[in-house]
Design brief:
Helix content is 63%, strand content 4%. By secondary structure, the protein is mainly alpha-helical. The protein has a three-stranded mixed sheet with strand order 3-4-5. A two-stranded antiparallel ribbon has the order 1-2. Helix 7 crosses helix 8 and helix 10 runs parallel beside helix 13. It is elongated, with a radius of gyration of 29 Å.
């Protein structure tokens, strides 16, 4: 029924709308749906957080924090295993894999699965953020709208990014940051034709969010910055770069899984209890942590004494400073345990939290010396941007996100200085952000439009299946007659089961062809082992790397160990050129 409906709608819209205009209409719809998803996610998480806090408030010393995260993570794992059947694709890295290797196709279950699992994880105290789940939800919406209307891979990628923009924008009420996040993290380049659908979707998402869920993360207007504070912003930039490296390494390692030798349910319960014990000591790590972040942004640093075992000691400035420093380092550990134990969430919010408390640490520490008075709120806001820029390698997203959600437009200079310094230091440590580093090392997927366009090429379309097989027992004199009937310069030598035994390259034997002695030899004497063999399912980017590495122009292709044809470098380059031309035409919305 859906296929018939899709077919009829596509026939109707192609008669009345150009493909490019239709992409704009789709971006409005994707933005609307992304906004609804963000509203639903925020509502569910905050509802469960209130339930968790009410439970905790009735128990001695909030002991419920020890077991609540385990309940949430266990519920997430149960849903993933028994109901979703492990079809959910968690994390921004999975989105990037689908863009690069799966022609921007994302399974439809990801539209709703992340809303359920992340609200269970974070609502019951999991120390992670909503941003990765809403990115996965928004991209799934965009991808499936594109699939329904049979759009091209490029157009699906645009809609996928539009869904991401709408989700991020609706969660933070920050339309520009939503667009920049998609461009810097998902697409990897900024072009005007791509920018327009994302901008429309982002604005639509924010409008939906404001209409249905007017709650704002932070209610703050920051003050102007002072010149005498500039050296301390530089210090904050350096520390932000170092802390970004720490977040990427520690968070990435923990997210890879904890208690790996145990089954998923033991991991969920064990990891949840470990997380609960950490939260019992540091209640500020419960959930996203935005409650405490909002309070310190409003100048209420005493909020850190709430629910804490150290409430009496925190009146001492030195103890308070050490406590703030401990929060800087433990938040990402708690986030890594949350995800590594099987919960669903992201490191975006923990990164914001860590950066904020790093800024508080610098400003509070300097102010205690009495040498100078720093505006604590400004340093908290700028610290958030510094940590984000270093972890995501996305300084524009960091600058505009913090400027939009804190009203800190007067802080553009400190934001730029700290974000740039953090980005440079983090980039010096690793050329790629934490998402791409894992994909490069574990999946052999690289950022960049060239890899994306290469991998949009299906090898099947450029395999030359017109070949002349030869038997290794064939005399070379008889092989001359085969040469006379074909223009080929490479011949496969096959076994009885169709597998490849070797190849005969005319270039290798050209000088020997007129030697009388060679006519008495067999093909087995002149065949060679190919320098490389291409697998049918190998991505085109990997094939191109192989061609470049061994400097040849033709290679054999096998499928399930059976030879099926040859692929030439010239055919791959010609197809690549055609893809570039096609994508440039598709990206021009006004052509």
């Amino acid at each position: 029924m859906l296929k018939t409906l899709s077919y009829k709608i596509n026939r109707w819209r192609l008669k009345r709308n150009s493909q490019r205009n239709f992409l704009i209409y789709c971006s409005v719809f994707v933005g609307f749906m992304g906004g609804l998803a963000a509203v639903a996610l925020k509502f569910l998480v905050h509802l469960m957080e209130e339930l968790s806090r009410n439970i905790s408030s009735h128990l001695y010393y909030h002991i419920a924090y020890v077991f609540l995260p385990a309940i949430g993570i266990l519920g997430t794992v149960l849903y993933q295993h028994l109901i979703n059947r492990d079809k959910i694709e968690k994390g921004i890295g999975k989105v990037l894999i689908n863009i690069k290797k799966n022609r921007s196709n994302i399974k439809v279950n990801n539209i709703y699965s992340h809303l359920i699992t992340s609200s269970l994880t974070i609502g019951f105290g999991g120390s992670a953020g909503l941003e990765a789940p809403i990115v996965c939800t928004g991209t799934a919406i965009g991808s499936n709208v594109g699939k329904f209307f049979k759009l091209t891979p490029y157009e699906k990628t645009v809609l996928l990014a539009a869904g991401c923009s709408a989700g991020i924008a609706a969660v933070f009420n920050s339309p520009i940051a939503g667009v920049l996040f998609s461009l810097e993290i998902l697409i990897g380049e900024i072009t005007i034709p791509t920018f327009i659908p994302l901008l429309i979707a982002s604005a639509t998402g924010v409008v939906v969010s404001k209409l249905l869920y007017s709650g704002q993360l932070f209610h703050l207007v920051t003050e102007g910055w002072a010149m005498n504070a500039l050296p301390f912003y530089v210090l904050l930039g350096i520390l932000s770069g170092w802390i970004a490296i720490y977040i990427s390494k520690v968070g990435g390692k923990l997210e890879g899984g904890i208690l790996k030798k145990q089954n998923r349910y033991v991991r969920a319960v064990g990891g949840g209890v470990i997380l609960g014990l950490i939260i019992a000591v540091f209640p500020q790590l419960f959930g996203e942590g935005y409650h405490y972040l909002t309070e310190i942004l409003n100048g209420n640093i005493n909020v850190l004494k709430e629910e804490s075992f150290f409430a009496n000691w925190l009146s001492e400035p030195l103890i308070m400073l050490l406590f703030i420093g401990a929060l800087v380092f433990t938040k990402i550990i708690a986030a890594g345990i949350t995800i590594g134990a099987g919960g669903n969430g992201g490191t975006f919010a923990p990164t914001v939290f860590t950066g904020a408390f790093l800024g508080l640490f610098v400003a509070y520490g300097v102010n205690q010396t009495g040498l100078i008075h720093l505006n604590t709120v400004n340093f908290i806001a700028v610290g958030m941007a510094g940590a984000l820029a270093g972890v995501l390698h996305a300084p524009l997203t960091a600058i505009f996100l913090i400027a939009e959600i804190t009203g800190g437009y007067v802080l553009f200079i400190p934001l730029m200085i700290v974000s740039a310094m953090s980005y440079i230091i983090s980039r010096y440590s690793s050329p790629h952000n934490m998402y791409w580093s894992q994909l490069i090392h574990h999946n052999n997927i690289h950022p960049g439009q060239d890899y994306g366009m290469l991998n949009s090429i299906m090898l099947d379309s450029i395999i030359n299946r017109k070949y002349t097989p030869v038997d290794k027992q064939m005399p070379v004199g008889e092989f001359y007659q085969v040469l006379a009937k074909t223009d080929a310069n490479i011949f496969p030598v096959l076994k009885e089961d169709g597998s490849l035994e070797g190849v005969v390259l005319i270039d290798d034997i050209r000088r020997r062809l007129f030697n009388k002695d060679i006519a008495d030899e067999n093909i087995a004497d002149i065949m060679i082992e190919p320098p490389a063999i291409i697998d049918y399912d190998q991505p085109a980017s990997s094939v191109m790397d192989t061609f470049d590495a061994i400097d040849v122009w033709q290679l054999p292709v096998v499928k399930d160990e059976v030879f099926i044809g040859f692929i030439s470098k010239s055919a791959l380059l010609s197809k690549y050129r055609a893809v570039i031309i096609e994508q440039h035409k598709a990206s021009d919305l006004f052509a």
